[in-house]
Write a structure and sequence with these properties.
Blueprint: H1 5-26, H2 34-45, H3 54-58, E1 66-69, E2 80-84, E3 88-90, E4 96-101, E5 108-111, H4 112-116, E6 119-124, H5 131-134, E7 137-141, H6 142-151, H7 164-171, E8 177-179, E9 182-184, H8 189-208, E10 218-220, E11 229-238, E12 249-255
Antiparallel strand pairs: 1-5, 2-6, 2-11, 3-4, 3-11, 4-10, 6-7, 8-9, 11-12
């Protein structure tokens, strides 16, 4: 028996409340909450077989609704080595903290379907010794990142076998870099990206279904120091003036307004 519309909206409101609770916990420092965030996003937007996402149950055009998205765009004429559409804050010191500002001028509106299938992480794989010659790239869509956390890493299920691509995302040498000469500990970009996606989805639910809901436009972990730098896109390109068997990457930074 089909659910009445009011019942579907009640379930949608529940998921929104779950999402807000998990995001609050994540940005208080419990980064494992990204697994719950991933599971909620899966319930809302993932469609497979006979499984109909909750947003499409609420509205037939549910995946066509508009959501805020920070899209990474390469500069013309540059060959990218890595690209992360993940908002972070540098500081204090060489630490990296998740940070999202939906009011930034770098955000735009796109359909949820495009947002879900967007490439959000791209970096060279160490699968071959001559990686910079073969140009073998590891490319992750938002869908792949979120479903890995939800279906394999503990959101709704722990797969008995590790996902090799996910492990490369955490451990690959090209993800280790410095900023202004200071080594930076590479964050768990999959969890940061998933939490950021949760913030974007929370605002989307408020705008399209629950306009009276209390939703913050800015989220970040901890208190920012007096001098802090906010990055919304981190990407690297070959520096052609340097002749090396292991080309140096430079940071391209988009500051938050």
């Amino acid at each position: 028996m089909p659910r009445p519309k009011e019942n579907i909206l009640a379930r949608l409101k529940e998921q929104m409340n779950f999402l807000r609770t998990s995001l609050r916990s994540f940005y208080e420092g419990n980064f494992a909450e990204s697994l719950r965030v991933a599971t909620i996003i899966r319930i809302l937007v993932h469609e497979s077989g006979m499984s109909k996402p909750l947003l499409k149950q609420a509205r037939p055009d549910g995946l066509d609704l508009q959501i805020r998205e920070n899209v990474c765009e390469a500069r013309p004429g540059e060959e990218e080595v890595f690209n992360f559409a993940v908002g972070v804050r540098m500081g204090p010191g060489a630490s990296v903290a998740p940070a999202v500002d939906l009011g930034s001028s770098h955000y735009t509106l796109n359909s949820i379907g495009a947002w879900w299938n967007r490439s959000v992480l791209s970096f060279p794989s160490n699968g071959t010794q001559m990686i910079y010659t073969t140009k073998k790239q590891m490319i992750y869509t938002r869908k792949k990142v979120v479903l890995t956390l939800a279906n394999k890493e503990g959101g709704a299920h722990v797969d008995p076998n590790e996902d090799a691509d996910y492990q490369r995302l955490l451990t690959n040498q090209p993800l280790t870099f410095r900023f202004q000469g200071v080594p930076i500990e590479t964050p768990d970009l999959a969890r940061f990206l998933t939490a950021q996606s949760g913030v974007e989805m929370l605002e989307c639910l408020k705008r399209n279904f629950f306009p009276d809901a209390d939703v913050l436009p800015k989220w970040e972990y901890g208190a920012a120091p007096r001098v802090a730098m906010y990055f919304e896109q981190i990407s690297g390109a070959f520096v052609t003036r340097i002749i090396s068997s292991f080309p140096t990457a430079e940071m391209r930074i988009t500051r938050r307004d």
